[in-house]
UniProtKB/TrEMBL annotation:
Top-rank EC class of the record's enzyme: oxidoreductase
Lineage: superkingdom: Eukaryota
Domain spans labelled 6-phosphogluconate dehydrogenase NADP-binding: 4-161
Single annotated GO MF: NADP binding
PANTHER family registered for this protein in UniProt: 3-HYDROXYISOBUTYRATE DEHYDROGENASE, MITOCHONDRIAL, 3-HYDROXYISOBUTYRATE DEHYDROGENASE-RELATED
Origin organism lineage: Eukaryota, Metazoa, Ecdysozoa, Arthropoda, Hexapoda
Entry protein name: 3-hydroxyisobutyrate dehydrogenase
EC number: 1.1.1.31
Keyword Transport attributed: no
Any GO CC annotation of this UniProt entry: mitochondrion
Protein keywords: Branched-chain amino acid catabolism, Mitochondrion, NAD, Oxidoreductase, Transit peptide
Annotated family: Belongs to the HIBADH-related family. 3-hydroxyisobutyrate dehydrogenase subfamily.
Compartments, record wording: Mitochondrion
Pathway of action: Amino-acid degradation; L-valine degradation
Amino acid sequence: GSKNIGFVGLGNMGGHMASNLIKAGHKLHVFDISKPACDNLKAKGATVYTKTSELAKNSDFVITMLPNNDIVDASYEEMTADGVNKNTFFIDSSTIDPTLVKSLQKRISAKGARFIDAPVSGGVPGAEQATLTFMVGGTEAEYNTVKAVLECMGKRITHCGDYGMGQAAKLANNMMLAISMIGVSEAMNLAMRLGLNPNTFAEIINSSTGRCWASELYNPVPGVTPTAPANRDYAGGFSTDLITKDLGLASGVATSSNTPIPMGALAHQIYRNLKSKGLGNKDFSIVYDYMKNDKN
Ligand code: NAD
């Protein structure tokens, strides 16, 4: 049935996710520090709040979709400082450190409410089309409670294990995505420098062993995948800032678990370098452009 759902963080992802909850018939209670982001949801029928503690008290579920650890931490502090409605179920879908997930879960359950991690994959198109993959960390019972709500925004809702395991899956996946995007960029650039036509080479990869999401659906070379950010000067899509953040989180959890990630660590440095060149707001497939321009 129709639920009261709070949504905090109405950006590239959250704006579409909240809209899909409205389309599914839920009552939305929203907050973002950006007024245009709030106005957009208000026009679709959501109630806009100025205090997230009030938003949370009026909600059966609260979903947070915020940029990073510090902002998520501060937002939960503000939302729960003066007590919680024990029936409110908090779901964080941002990409953050699994350690922070565990500490938030302890803090919120100590106040009597529930909290789980449910980060997503599928990008802005997945958010828009409600085809996201949700990686849920929590108990089986909690997973079963949130599943119907998440299904309004995604098509695959997977229970990954205990608190933080959704983030563990997300960080490992995104580390691999960064490595494969750099790999596709390197290979496309090499093939083109050797004289191959990019479309011919992409066709070869995509019916060969090099095939992956970055080569097939998000090719970094302009003119290869019509819908990819490469065709609009790497605008929109998944930013270099965000992939760099995710690689930093992956490095942190790899260090704390004594896990070798030689390629992930290198990918992190490459993306940090792109960021320092002022390309943080460009789509992460811009790594191809960077290789193309490297002609020493
Ligand atoms: P975004 O920057 O577009 O949106 C973040 C929103 O949070 C903005 O509207 C901003 O105004 C708002 N915000 C910032 N501080 C706030 C605060 N204190 N209170 C309320 N609102 C605040 O980012 P996004 O692309 O929507 O990503 C959100 C999260 O989802 C990130 O953790 C990201 O890593 C993750 N993610 C992004 C993608 C993607 O393809 N963009 C895919 C999967 C996961």
